[in-house]
Amino acid sequence: MNSYQKAADLVKQSNHTTAFTGAGISVQSGIPDFRSENGLWKNYDPQIFSISYLSQKPAKTWSAIKEIYYEFFVDSQTNSAHKILAEMEKNNLLDAIITQNIDNLHQEAGSVNVIEYHGNSKKAICLDCGAEFNDLELLLNNIPPVCSECGGILKPDFIFFGEPIPQKAHQLAYLEAEKADLFIIIGTAGEVQPAGQIPFYAKENGAKIIEINLKKSNYSDELTNIFLKGQAVEALQKLANNLGISLE
């Protein structure tokens, strides 16, 4: 029995399966990650995405956000990895997704129970009054965008350096990790904290771990029961084949 058959058997036998996704699942949608050799941090200073920098130099931060948003996010589309996870949920083979990504692609693929640990790039929030805005494309016509309610500076509704994880997302993620008897890590090496600790909590609570990554990660030797080496699209397609799931 090969690794994909073993992984499929674990999925079929599981009472509660949770997926934990990172940048690797969206790379094949044209969205580069931040930390790899060709990642976005090669072109952007990470401090631009700190909450203190936004407060001091909002125009510079928003200029970088606009470049990334239009160049990498606006034209990105869901790939078959996102769609397979959505299909698994429809077939009661996946209960939830905890994602570190801010690209909204899981929801666009049809996944319903998605916990966005780091927020979502499609919305903005006022730093002063807390008003929320959904039409980010329109907002980006003026840099920096300001609140129509109070005139305060807007911030994308994702986590900046120096900000805490939203309490609700944190609680829901750890609840899922606690309930899961199967935890599927996809496209993340566990380098970003505190998100990187979630799979350890799942393991502590008895979950079996399937890992899909191009190379070994911080999880592989300590946590992983089955390692499926490869890109998310190809690996999840093989898993789907063994589960009898096809995308029409």
Automatic annotation (TrEMBL):
The catalytic site is made up of: 118 (proton acceptor)
Keywords assigned by UniProt, alphabetized: Metal-binding, NAD, Transferase, Zinc
- Domain Deacetylase sirtuin-type intervals: 1-246
Name the UniProt record assigns to this protein: protein acetyllysine N-acetyltransferase
Give the EC number(s) listed in the UniProt record.
Answer: 2.3.1.286
Q: Which organism is it from?
A: Halanaerobium polyolivorans
Pfam families associated with the record: SIR2 (PF02146)
Annotated GO MF terms? histone deacetylase activity, NAD-dependent; metal ion binding; NAD+ binding
Residues binding Zn(2+), per UniProt: 126, 129, 147, 150
EC main class here is transferase
Query: Mind telling me which InterPro entries this protein's record contains?
Result: DHS-like_NAD/FAD-binding_dom, NAD-dep_sirtuin_deacylases, Sirtuin, Sirtuin_cat_small_dom_sf, Ssirtuin_cat_dom
